[in-house]
Amino acid sequence: MNSTQIFEMALGLEKPWYVKEIKMDQAEGAGHGQIDIYLDFEKGHRFAGGKVYDTMERMWQHLNFFQHTCFLHARVPRVENSTGKVETVQVPWARPGSGFTLLFEAFGMLLIESEMPVNKASGVLDIYPQRLWNIFSYWIKKAYNSDEQSGVKVLGIDETSSKKGHRYVTVAVDMEERRVVHAVPGKGADTIGCIQQHLEARGCEKEQIEQTCIDMSPSFISGILEHFPKASITFDRFHVVKIINEAMDKVRKQERHEFGMLKGYKYNFLKNDKNLSQSGKEAKYNILTLFPTIANAYRLKEMFNEFWSFKSMEEAGGYLTYWCDLVEESGIQPFKKAAKTLLVHWTGIVNYAETKLNNGILEGINSKIQLAKKRARGYRNIDNFINMIYFIAGKLKFDYPQYSI
């Protein structure tokens, strides 16, 4: 077996393509060089039944052979079809318009999939970062455009930022499939309209969306009511609990102004006992014994946890009414304010009893997004950020060569 046959096997070439010539250029004393592989096709071959009209010289960067940079060269034929139109033949080792082989692009995607930042991956591949971003964007858009989304019935909607404190993106999640189906720049009510238009374009009518899980953002609420009129709204558990915890902390702060010893005990009252050390639990219960207002507030906070155990809207609504009455009787202002907020969002809160929708899925996806953002130190290009969201949380199917490292 000679060297050309070895390279033909390595490249997976099939007739009519073959390796015509191999050249290697290595500077004296250098540890690496450049391999140029010249490909050609068998004389007289008719591509797709058409006669070769002419050829164009093309070059593609390929994966390194050992430590040597490798480029493929070929004269790509153009053929005249039955209608008389001249078309360029698609070569089997690269996609149209690309300056890289499919294996090179697949390796780049694999590096990104392995949680390597694009800038670092481009260094491994020895290309400019923007060229790798272009490869990345192509395969994401190709997979995303062919993604099946017509069966979505339950939507979770949340927001995330592309950089710390900068430029928000609204993310729509198929709660049943646990994956992102669309992402839109911004965080206003108009983003819900964009999501609705996107789903309808994919064959999912707005009346098909039965349930939504969102936070208490007025823009999200108005957006859902306008664009998904048949969908029920469930406010996720995390944001409801957050309101109660904020009320608890305000009570502690108010008491701290009078009693300095309460400083530094914030998380003693926000964490569950199982997440506290023994000394932390002892400190908390000592304070509850000494400060009746804090004790009463803590009792209300703990009582609210019972709300999540109900399985019907009637039972949940009855308990929420009872809890709000206790808050009113307590006279504790931060809790009275929290109760008013819950009453305003009553239906979306008691819906949880039957839908059991919560942001656990959304939080899990957002954690992946935030980790990717941290590795990349933020995203200046919002389109790159959205494509990365699809890549890590869209469960897309790609058709580039698959292999592992």
Please provide a written account of the structure.
- Residues 89-139 form the Transposase IS204/IS1001/IS1096/IS1165 helix-turn-helix domain.
- It comes from Echinicola soli.
- It contains 15 helices and ten strands.
- The chain has four domains: 3-99, no CATH class; 105-146, no CATH class; 154-235 and 358-393, 2-Layer Sandwich (Nucleotidyltransferase, domain 5); 237-355.
- The chain has helices at 3-11, 102-113, 118-125, 129-145, 189-201, 218-227, 237-258, 278-290, 292-304, 313-330, 333-344, 346-350, 352-355, 360-376, 382-393, and strands at residues 17-25, 34-41, 51-65, 68-80, 86-88, 154-163, 166-174, 179-185, 211-214, 232-235.
Mean pLDDT level: 86
Largest sheet: 5 strands, mixed
Query: How much of the sequence is in beta strands?
Result: 15-25%
The dominant shape is elongated
Tally of DSSP β-strands: 10
Instruction: State the distance separating the first and last CA atoms.
Output: 28 Å
Structural class: alpha/beta
Individual helix count: 15
Radius of gyration: 30 Å
Domain Transposase IS204/IS1001/IS1096/IS1165 helix-turn-helix: 89-139
Protein name: ISL3 family transposase
Pfam families: DDE_Tnp_ISL3, HTH_Tnp_ISL3
Organism: Echinicola soli
Outline:
The chain has 405 residues and is α/β, with parallel strands linked by helices. 46% of the residues lie in helices and 20% in strands.
Keywords for this entry:
ISL3 family transposase, 4 domains, Nucleotidyltransferase, domain 5, 20% strand, single chain, Transposase_HTH, Transposase_DDE, 405 residues, Transpos_ISL3, alpha/beta
